[in-house]
Structures are given as C-alpha cells and as structure tokens.
Amino acid sequence: MNIIYKSPFDHQHKVLKVNKDEIVPLNELKRRILLKENLSCSSINFDLLYNGKKIVDNLNPNGTDIFIHLFIPILGGKGGFGSMLRAIGAQIEKTTNREACRDLSGRRLRDVNEEKRIKEWIKKQADRKKEEEKKKREKLKQIAEGNIATNCKYDDEDFEKFRTEIPDIIDESITQGLQKQQQQSSTSKRKLETTTDNSPSDNDQDQ
C-alpha cells in the first residue's frame, strides 16, 4: 500500500510504502516524510491534509493507496488589517458612476453606453425629420391662410444712417480720386515741357 504526496520543496510526487491495514500515527508519518526529504526531524514544521481535512491523529488508509497534501503553515501578522480596511471604506464616497468599468468583453461601459445613445439617436432621426416637415407644412398653411404676417420690419437706426450716407461717401471718394489723378497728370506734363526746353537744338550742335 502506498501513501502519495507532492513535495513542497522540489514539487515532485513521492511515495511512502506502508504495510496493508497499517495505522500510521501522525508523528510517524511526518518522520517518514522528513526522511524521504532528507531533512532532520526538527528542521521544519508542516501539516498534512487528507480528503480536505487536517490530519490530527492517526492515518488509517484502509488497505488502499491514498494521496495526502503537505503544506507549510505561515505565521500570521499582528492583525488589525480588517479594521483598517473598514476605516478606509468609510472615507470613500459612494458613487453610481460606472462609466470607467469594463464589461466581460473588456469594453468600457462608457463606450457601450455611448454606442447605445448613438443608435437611439439614429433611430429617432427619421422621426425628427418628419416632425420638422410637419412644422414647415403647418407654418406654410398658416401663412397661406393669413394667420402669420409674412413681412418683417428691420429697425436699426445706426444701420439706416450708414446706409443713407454710403452714396455720398462713394461720390466724395470718386471726386478725390479724379482730382488726384488730374494733379499727377499736370505735374508730369510740366516736367516734360521743362525737359524739352532745356535740351540743346540741332543747329547748336552743327555749329
């Protein structure tokens, strides 16, 4: 009959041979495991599990091969971690905003909700167009029946004043431009005449 366990040191499955119908005390079982691992009896403390329960007394295999778990207990801390978590939790503000969370497919809930809103907007777009067309037809119908005035009066004193002054401003600008052009033409003509008078004649050159 065999007692099989997985070593926590080299992660290998190992076998202990025991006699059929032998009842193995816990201390004896631990001693055999330590010898199998080439460890001294006082070098390490460990516990054994069989069928999910901790072995606290003798082990009775009942004539069959069994598998036991070997684990090394870890000493706990001083405690107080739970109270610290509760204190921190009391300081955290509760929120219903889960937009930054992800669904099972890894997508942000913000993106999923935005996609839903866009789909709803597209579905309602045809209804909005129908509503706009309906409002236009009703307005045209009311205009045709004379219920709505079609003429609108635009009243802006500054704009009206500027609009009436525009023709005078244009005429004055044109007049100033023509006068300046005439002055430039007269100046160019006088310069040309002066140049002609000062040039030597052909007769003087022959002499």
Describe this structure in words.
- The chain is of the alpha+beta class and 207 residues long.
- Among the domains are: 2-71, Phosphatidylinositol 3-kinase Catalytic Subunit, Chain A, domain 1 (Ubiquitin-like (UB roll)); 112-169, no CATH class.
- The chain has helices spanning 26-36, 81-91, 109-144, 157-198, 202-206; strands at residues 2-6, 13-17, 47-50, 53-54, 66-71.
- It has a 5-stranded mixed β-sheet with strand order 2-1-5-3-4, with helices on one face.
- The longest helix is centred in the C-terminal third of the chain and has 42 residues, at 157-198.
- The model has no long low-confidence stretch (mean pLDDT 80).
In CATH terms, the superfamily of the domain at 2-71 is Phosphatidylinositol 3-kinase Catalytic Subunit, Chain A, domain 1
According to CATH, the fold-level topology of the domain at 2-71 is: Ubiquitin-like (UB roll)
Placed side by side, the strands forming the largest sheet appear as 2-1-5-3-4
Using the CA coordinates, give the radius of gyration: 54 Å
SSE ordering: EEHEEEHHHH
Q: What's the N-to-C terminus distance?
A: 154 Å
Low-pLDDT stretches? none
Largest sheet: 5 strands, mixed
Specify the structural class: alpha+beta
Helicity range: 40-55%
CATH class of the domain at 2-71: Alpha Beta
General shape: elongated
Domain SDE2-like: 76-175
Biased composition (Polar residues): 195-207
Pfam family, one: SDE2
Main location: cytoplasm
